[in-house]
Design goal:
Blueprint (H helix, E strand, L loop, with lengths): L8 E3 L1 H8 L4 E4 L2 H6 L4 H15 L3 E8 L2 E4 L3 H10 L4 E3 L4 H7 L3 E3 L1 H11 L3 E3 L10 H4 L4 H8 L3 E4 L8 H10 L4 E4 L18 E3 L2 H13 L6 E4 L10 H18 L6 H12 L3 H24 L3
Parallel strand pairs: 1-4, 2-3, 2-7, 5-6, 7-8, 8-11, 9-10, 9-11
Antiparallel strand pairs: 3-4
Helix pairs in contact: 3-4, 3-13, 6-8, 10-13, 11-12
Length: 308
Amino acid sequence: MNNMKNPYLSLSPEVAKALEEGKPVVALESTIISHGMPYPQNVETALRVEQTIRDNGAVPATIAIIGGKMKAGCTKEEIEYLGKKGQAVIKASRRDLPVLLARGEDGATTVTTTMIIASLAGIKVFATGGIGGVHRGAQQTFDISADLEELAQTQVMVICAGAKSILDLGLTLEYLETKGVPVIGYGTDELPAFYTRHSGFGVDYRIDTPEELAAAFQAKIACGLKGGMLVTNPIPEEYSMDADVINAAIEKALSEADKKGVHGKQCTPFLLAKVKDLTGGDSLAANIQLVLNNARLAALTAVALSKH
């Protein structure tokens, strides 16, 4: 969609030119900047991710809501602004968009809103850390991330390191199957679980090259099939954390969240911060490496997709 047709959509000159010329573009979310990591690691990581995408032949488009505009392509100054403002920036999901835009406010985009804005801009590939999913205990709480519903309806390929292991991975996969979302393992038959390469759950298909990822997504587009494609890319072996260590930290964090009554939008940031503390910062280091790894794959896939 041309940004001139949507008064709330603002493309950076670089992103607009790349899309107009059919060059590869990779969308990036901004919740990881404001809510996912402390300052200054959040800004440093965001800029490293953008550089990784450039180094692999694509144009990065960090997405956020700033001053009531859906930005596809943030400047270094805007990334710094989001990083310093941190959790004071509203974590914006689909339900938040209309009010934030109407009020001229800021918002850090989740997987859901990044997919929406990427789709409006015409960007087909999106790299993130991990997706949201069905939370543990959802049978009672009905706490299911809007990310899953967005994957069911918005035609963007999401490349991640699997679902965050704070979630119920089995129910998350069941939900995606019901919604007809293909779950691809990149170079693996097993669903990676964010900090660790292993979850014990299988994926729908294994794909081993960016070219095949691009071909599969192009086939989906050509057939007019709505919804996205979820590509799960395992964290590099040297940065993968021991599953027992990370699961013990997660169980402790979940218990504390329950005692403190933490729920809704605050749940994931609370759990990730607690897990970071419990692992002595190892989880933050792993988080940074898996995001960079996903950015590389996304750039190579966007390059391959631009040739179709």
